[in-house]
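ARCHIVE CARD
Drawer: 12
Card no.: 0347
Subject: one protein chain, sequence and derived structure
Cross-reference: see card 0346
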Amino acid sequence: MSNDHRIADIRTEGTFPLESSATAANGNHLSESQRGEEVSFSSGDQLGPTGQLERIIDENDLLPVAFLESGASRQRSIARVTLREPHRGLNAGSGWGTGFLVSPSLFLTNNHVIREAGFLRKIRFEFNYQVTLDGFETIPESYLAAADGFLHTNVDLDYTLVRLNPGPIQNDGTPIPPGNRWGSIQLEPFVQFREEQHFNIIQHPNGRRKEVALQDNEIAKLFRNIVLYKGDTEPGSSGSPVFDNVWQLVALHHAGGETNAEGDFVNNEGIRIDRIVEDLRETFQNSSEILTELGIA
């Protein structure tokens, strides 16, 4: 698909109708006759005068606008893990998983995405695989990882940490570490989990261009090693970072969670990031260079 191809559905969404200016001064809701007939969400009703008696509905969903800026900054460090050759019925170029930089060159994803060093020759790591504000498809930037380079994996906590090779050459001929170009996400040794807490997941579901599940993603249950939440994911989302509402990293998404009597999933499951940090500290207690690079020494 060409770079100047617009994503049509992004450009054709309707607008939400806004509150009527006829709201009574005492704050009572309108009668059925005052409401008028129900209209579709794409009707484009106009905003009335400000100063009406707005209300918080159920819980307060208001967030500072910096929430959007912080999320836009965080998403840069997240990449699609892509196949370089056919594998398990998928063609070369297919999305295989998601992951993100946690240092200038160390990349975190799931163990079931990258199980061992030999698999590294079959994949690449694509940053900037997304759609722009104008609805254009970006040109991704790819990095590789050497099969004889650093790799640490933990089956029980379902995570893999791998070192990516430097990428495109700068003007002076120096290769660029991916984190110097795309940034990295700090691992958090201490994470707060609260009842009814909301999470946000940036991901490559089904290998698509980068997407985000926001706000309608409440914590469901908490265990020593995992946290369950209600946000949407799809195959290909494995290895995605799970954030709280201040964009602190709280978990590594890895699988569907619990099912109901009909066998349908009712939540998703992530590995607690503080447990991953705990394991890294124990594993590399005699290799302070790695812990220092990760900012968890």
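Annotation on reverse: Helices lie at 8-11, 32-35, 66-75, 178-182, 273-283, 288-294. The first helix runs from residue 8 to 11.
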